[in-house]
Amino acid sequence: MTLVNPMKLTCASISLREPHMAELLARELPLPYLEVMADNFLSGRGPHYHLLKQLAERYPIELHCVGFSFGSTLDPDYLKAIARLAVDLNARSVSDHLSLSAVPGGFVHDLLPVTYQESSLQVLCDNLGRTQEVLSQPLRLENPSRYLSYQADCLTEGEMMTELHRRCGIEVLLDINNLYVTGHNLGIEPEALMADYPAAAVRQYHLAGHAQQPPLLLDNHGNTVSEPVWQLYQQALESFGVHPTVIEWDDDLPALDTLLGEARQAERFATRQGDRTEIGGMDRASGIG
Ligand SMILES: [Fe+2]
After folding, report:
1. Measured in angstroms, how far is the CA atom of residue 182 from the centroid of ligand 1?
2. Most exposed among 100, 154, 209, 240, judged by the fewest C-beta atoms under 10 Å?
3. DSSP classification of residue 5
Protein backbone atom coordinates (compact mmCIF):
# COMPACT_ATOMS: atom_id res chain seq x y z
CA MET A 1 0.00 0.00 0.00
CA THR A 2 1.24 3.50 -0.81
CA LEU A 3 2.21 5.64 2.15
CA VAL A 4 0.37 8.94 2.30
CA ASN A 5 2.30 12.05 3.22
CA PRO A 6 0.67 13.26 6.44
CA MET A 7 0.76 16.92 5.33
CA LYS A 8 -2.84 18.11 5.26
CA LEU A 9 -3.88 19.92 2.12
CA THR A 10 -6.27 22.81 2.74
CA CYS A 11 -5.61 24.99 -0.30
CA ALA A 12 -4.01 22.92 -3.05
CA SER A 13 -5.45 19.92 -4.86
CA ILE A 14 -5.44 18.22 -8.25
CA SER A 15 -7.42 18.07 -11.44
CA LEU A 16 -8.99 14.62 -11.53
CA ARG A 17 -7.91 12.22 -14.29
CA GLU A 18 -9.71 8.95 -15.00
CA PRO A 19 -6.71 6.61 -14.32
CA HIS A 20 -6.56 7.97 -10.76
CA MET A 21 -10.25 7.71 -9.86
CA ALA A 22 -10.37 4.23 -8.34
CA GLU A 23 -7.16 4.87 -6.35
CA LEU A 24 -8.53 8.14 -5.01
CA LEU A 25 -11.65 6.39 -3.81
CA ALA A 26 -9.66 3.56 -2.21
CA ARG A 27 -7.17 5.79 -0.38
CA GLU A 28 -9.66 8.29 1.06
CA LEU A 29 -7.14 11.15 0.87
CA PRO A 30 -7.94 14.31 2.86
CA LEU A 31 -8.13 16.64 -0.16
CA PRO A 32 -9.97 19.98 0.15
CA TYR A 33 -11.74 19.57 -3.23
CA LEU A 34 -11.28 18.06 -6.70
CA GLU A 35 -11.33 19.78 -10.05
CA VAL A 36 -13.23 17.76 -12.66
CA MET A 37 -12.92 18.12 -16.44
CA ALA A 38 -16.61 18.44 -17.27
CA ASP A 39 -16.28 17.61 -20.97
CA ASN A 40 -15.22 14.05 -20.13
CA PHE A 41 -18.46 13.34 -18.25
CA LEU A 42 -21.21 14.98 -20.29
CA SER A 43 -23.00 11.70 -20.95
CA GLY A 44 -23.74 11.40 -17.24
CA ARG A 45 -23.41 7.63 -17.31
CA GLY A 46 -20.88 4.78 -17.50
CA PRO A 47 -18.46 3.26 -14.99
CA HIS A 48 -16.28 6.37 -14.70
CA TYR A 49 -19.31 8.51 -14.02
CA HIS A 50 -20.31 6.09 -11.30
CA LEU A 51 -16.87 6.58 -9.71
CA LEU A 52 -17.15 10.34 -10.13
CA LYS A 53 -20.48 10.41 -8.30
CA GLN A 54 -18.88 8.61 -5.38
CA LEU A 55 -15.96 11.06 -5.36
CA ALA A 56 -18.40 13.98 -5.48
CA GLU A 57 -20.02 12.69 -2.30
CA ARG A 58 -16.62 12.86 -0.61
CA TYR A 59 -15.06 16.01 -2.07
CA PRO A 60 -16.36 19.44 -3.14
CA ILE A 61 -16.18 19.69 -6.93
CA GLU A 62 -14.84 22.55 -9.07
CA LEU A 63 -16.11 21.97 -12.62
CA HIS A 64 -13.69 22.89 -15.41
CA CYS A 65 -14.70 23.09 -19.10
CA VAL A 66 -13.09 23.57 -22.51
CA GLY A 67 -16.19 23.66 -24.75
CA PHE A 68 -18.03 26.92 -24.08
CA SER A 69 -16.21 29.01 -26.71
CA PHE A 70 -17.23 32.23 -24.96
CA GLY A 71 -15.37 34.24 -27.60
CA SER A 72 -17.57 33.13 -30.51
CA THR A 73 -20.78 31.09 -30.49
CA LEU A 74 -22.41 29.60 -27.43
CA ASP A 75 -24.03 26.19 -27.89
CA PRO A 76 -27.24 26.13 -25.80
CA ASP A 77 -27.22 22.32 -25.64
CA TYR A 78 -23.67 22.35 -24.25
CA LEU A 79 -24.67 24.96 -21.69
CA LYS A 80 -27.64 22.84 -20.59
CA ALA A 81 -25.44 19.74 -20.30
CA ILE A 82 -22.87 21.58 -18.16
CA ALA A 83 -25.60 23.05 -15.96
CA ARG A 84 -27.10 19.59 -15.47
CA LEU A 85 -23.71 18.12 -14.57
CA ALA A 86 -22.97 20.96 -12.16
CA VAL A 87 -26.21 20.28 -10.31
CA ASP A 88 -25.70 16.51 -10.35
CA LEU A 89 -22.21 16.84 -8.83
CA ASN A 90 -23.19 19.71 -6.54
CA ALA A 91 -20.28 21.69 -8.06
CA ARG A 92 -19.30 24.87 -6.28
CA SER A 93 -17.97 26.68 -9.38
CA VAL A 94 -17.76 26.34 -13.17
CA SER A 95 -14.85 27.58 -15.27
CA ASP A 96 -13.73 27.82 -18.90
CA HIS A 97 -11.29 29.93 -20.88
CA LEU A 98 -11.04 33.40 -22.36
CA SER A 99 -10.92 31.89 -25.85
CA LEU A 100 -12.94 30.49 -28.73
CA SER A 101 -13.22 27.02 -30.20
CA ALA A 102 -16.39 27.20 -32.31
CA VAL A 103 -15.54 28.62 -35.74
CA PRO A 104 -17.62 28.91 -38.94
CA GLY A 105 -18.15 25.39 -40.22
CA GLY A 106 -17.03 23.49 -37.15
CA PHE A 107 -15.19 23.23 -33.90
CA VAL A 108 -11.42 23.39 -33.47
CA HIS A 109 -10.06 21.24 -30.68
CA ASP A 110 -7.96 24.04 -29.35
CA LEU A 111 -8.42 27.17 -27.27
CA LEU A 112 -7.83 29.98 -29.76
CA PRO A 113 -7.25 33.47 -28.38
CA VAL A 114 -9.81 36.17 -29.06
CA THR A 115 -8.78 39.65 -30.16
CA TYR A 116 -8.33 41.86 -27.13
CA GLN A 117 -10.63 44.72 -28.11
CA GLU A 118 -14.10 46.15 -27.45
CA SER A 119 -15.91 44.06 -30.07
CA SER A 120 -14.68 40.87 -28.39
CA LEU A 121 -15.77 42.16 -24.99
CA GLN A 122 -19.31 42.59 -26.30
CA VAL A 123 -19.44 39.00 -27.62
CA LEU A 124 -17.89 37.65 -24.43
CA CYS A 125 -20.25 39.58 -22.16
CA ASP A 126 -23.26 38.39 -24.11
CA ASN A 127 -22.18 34.74 -23.88
CA LEU A 128 -21.03 34.98 -20.26
CA GLY A 129 -24.28 36.67 -19.27
CA ARG A 130 -26.41 34.00 -20.95
CA THR A 131 -24.34 31.33 -19.20
CA GLN A 132 -24.68 32.98 -15.80
CA GLU A 133 -28.46 33.09 -16.23
CA VAL A 134 -28.51 29.30 -16.47
CA LEU A 135 -25.82 28.31 -13.97
CA SER A 136 -26.35 28.62 -10.26
CA GLN A 137 -22.60 28.46 -9.54
CA PRO A 138 -20.01 31.28 -9.83
CA LEU A 139 -18.51 31.39 -13.34
CA ARG A 140 -14.72 31.67 -13.61
CA LEU A 141 -12.70 32.61 -16.67
CA GLU A 142 -9.19 31.28 -17.22
CA ASN A 143 -6.39 32.96 -19.17
CA PRO A 144 -5.35 30.68 -22.07
CA SER A 145 -1.81 29.96 -23.20
CA ARG A 146 -1.20 32.10 -26.25
CA TYR A 147 1.11 31.47 -29.17
CA LEU A 148 0.11 34.52 -31.20
CA SER A 149 -1.36 37.98 -30.79
CA TYR A 150 -3.39 40.06 -33.23
CA GLN A 151 -2.73 43.45 -34.79
CA ALA A 152 -6.23 44.43 -33.62
CA ASP A 153 -5.34 43.86 -29.95
CA CYS A 154 -5.63 47.14 -28.09
CA LEU A 155 -6.20 45.87 -24.54
CA THR A 156 -3.96 43.71 -22.38
CA GLU A 157 -5.13 40.36 -21.06
CA GLY A 158 -5.49 41.84 -17.58
CA GLU A 159 -7.53 44.74 -18.94
CA MET A 160 -9.83 42.26 -20.71
CA MET A 161 -10.34 40.37 -17.45
CA THR A 162 -10.89 43.61 -15.54
CA GLU A 163 -13.60 44.72 -17.97
CA LEU A 164 -15.27 41.30 -17.94
CA HIS A 165 -15.29 41.30 -14.14
CA ARG A 166 -16.71 44.83 -14.08
CA ARG A 167 -19.39 44.26 -16.74
CA CYS A 168 -20.37 40.63 -16.08
CA GLY A 169 -19.13 39.89 -12.56
CA ILE A 170 -17.06 36.90 -13.66
CA GLU A 171 -14.32 35.59 -11.40
CA VAL A 172 -10.79 34.88 -12.63
CA LEU A 173 -9.07 31.51 -12.65
CA LEU A 174 -5.46 32.58 -13.07
CA ASP A 175 -3.35 29.86 -14.68
CA ILE A 176 0.19 30.73 -13.66
CA ASN A 177 1.80 28.37 -16.18
CA ASN A 178 -0.33 29.81 -18.99
CA LEU A 179 0.76 33.29 -17.96
CA TYR A 180 4.41 32.23 -18.10
CA VAL A 181 4.02 30.41 -21.46
CA THR A 182 2.18 33.39 -22.99
CA GLY A 183 4.79 35.85 -21.73
CA HIS A 184 7.61 33.79 -23.19
CA ASN A 185 5.91 33.22 -26.55
CA LEU A 186 4.84 36.83 -27.03
CA GLY A 187 8.00 38.40 -25.64
CA ILE A 188 6.28 40.01 -22.64
CA GLU A 189 7.50 39.77 -19.06
CA PRO A 190 4.95 37.51 -17.30
CA GLU A 191 5.10 39.82 -14.27
CA ALA A 192 3.93 42.65 -16.53
CA LEU A 193 1.08 40.48 -17.84
CA MET A 194 0.03 39.71 -14.29
CA ALA A 195 0.19 43.34 -13.14
CA ASP A 196 -2.95 44.29 -15.08
CA TYR A 197 -5.14 41.57 -13.59
CA PRO A 198 -8.06 42.60 -11.34
CA ALA A 199 -6.92 41.53 -7.85
CA ALA A 200 -10.47 41.50 -6.48
CA ALA A 201 -11.60 39.01 -9.13
CA VAL A 202 -8.90 36.32 -8.77
CA ARG A 203 -10.46 33.32 -7.01
CA GLN A 204 -8.44 30.28 -8.09
CA TYR A 205 -5.05 29.29 -9.53
CA HIS A 206 -3.87 26.60 -11.92
CA LEU A 207 -0.33 25.23 -11.99
CA ALA A 208 1.13 22.83 -14.57
CA GLY A 209 4.26 21.92 -16.46
CA HIS A 210 5.16 22.96 -19.99
CA ALA A 211 7.45 21.71 -22.76
CA GLN A 212 10.27 23.48 -24.56
CA GLN A 213 9.97 23.64 -28.34
CA PRO A 214 12.25 26.51 -29.30
CA PRO A 215 11.48 29.25 -29.87
CA LEU A 216 8.15 28.46 -28.18
CA LEU A 217 6.99 27.01 -24.89
CA LEU A 218 4.11 24.54 -25.22
CA ASP A 219 1.43 24.28 -22.57
CA ASN A 220 1.25 20.47 -22.65
CA HIS A 221 0.57 19.78 -18.95
CA GLY A 222 3.22 17.09 -19.22
CA ASN A 223 5.80 17.87 -16.59
CA THR A 224 6.37 19.12 -13.08
CA VAL A 225 5.86 22.82 -12.45
CA SER A 226 8.99 24.71 -13.53
CA GLU A 227 10.98 26.85 -11.12
CA PRO A 228 10.11 30.18 -12.85
CA VAL A 229 6.42 29.24 -12.63
CA TRP A 230 6.76 28.56 -8.89
CA GLN A 231 8.34 32.01 -8.55
CA LEU A 232 5.47 33.56 -10.50
CA TYR A 233 3.00 31.69 -8.26
CA GLN A 234 4.72 33.24 -5.23
CA GLN A 235 4.25 36.66 -6.79
CA ALA A 236 0.58 35.92 -7.49
CA LEU A 237 0.05 34.90 -3.86
CA GLU A 238 1.57 38.20 -2.73
CA SER A 239 -0.50 40.24 -5.22
CA PHE A 240 -3.86 38.44 -5.19
CA GLY A 241 -3.85 36.40 -1.97
CA VAL A 242 -4.11 32.70 -1.20
CA HIS A 243 -6.78 30.88 -3.20
CA PRO A 244 -7.54 27.26 -4.11
CA THR A 245 -4.74 26.01 -6.37
CA VAL A 246 -5.10 23.09 -8.78
CA ILE A 247 -2.32 20.98 -10.27
CA GLU A 248 -3.13 20.03 -13.89
CA TRP A 249 -1.43 17.14 -15.68
CA ASP A 250 -2.41 15.52 -19.01
CA ASP A 251 0.51 14.35 -21.20
CA ASP A 252 2.49 11.37 -19.83
CA LEU A 253 0.22 11.20 -16.80
CA PRO A 254 2.30 9.97 -13.85
CA ALA A 255 1.28 8.17 -10.66
CA LEU A 256 -1.21 9.91 -8.42
CA ASP A 257 1.51 10.49 -5.80
CA THR A 258 3.48 12.66 -8.24
CA LEU A 259 0.49 14.98 -8.63
CA LEU A 260 -0.03 14.99 -4.87
CA GLY A 261 3.64 15.92 -4.42
CA GLU A 262 3.14 18.95 -6.66
CA ALA A 263 0.00 19.86 -4.70
CA ARG A 264 1.95 19.65 -1.43
CA GLN A 265 4.58 21.98 -2.88
CA ALA A 266 1.83 24.48 -3.80
CA GLU A 267 0.43 24.11 -0.27
CA ARG A 268 3.84 24.99 1.20
CA PHE A 269 3.95 28.20 -0.86
CA ALA A 270 0.40 29.10 0.16
CA THR A 271 1.04 28.32 3.82
CA ARG A 272 4.18 30.47 3.91
CA GLN A 273 2.29 33.31 2.26
CA GLY A 274 -0.66 32.76 4.57
CA ASP A 275 1.61 32.95 7.60
CA ARG A 276 2.87 36.32 6.36
CA THR A 277 -0.53 37.80 5.51
CA GLU A 278 -2.78 35.97 7.98
CA ILE A 279 -4.57 34.24 5.10
CA GLY A 280 -6.09 36.94 2.91
CA GLY A 281 -9.19 35.65 1.18
CA MET A 282 -8.87 32.03 2.26
CA ASP A 283 -10.69 30.17 4.97
CA ARG A 284 -7.88 27.89 6.04
CA ALA A 285 -9.98 25.97 8.51
CA SER A 286 -12.29 24.57 5.86
CA GLY A 287 -9.95 24.82 2.92
CA ILE A 288 -12.67 26.58 0.98
CA GLY A 289 -11.70 29.87 -0.61
FE1 LIG B 1 -5.29 25.74 -16.66
Report:
1. 12
2. 154
3. P
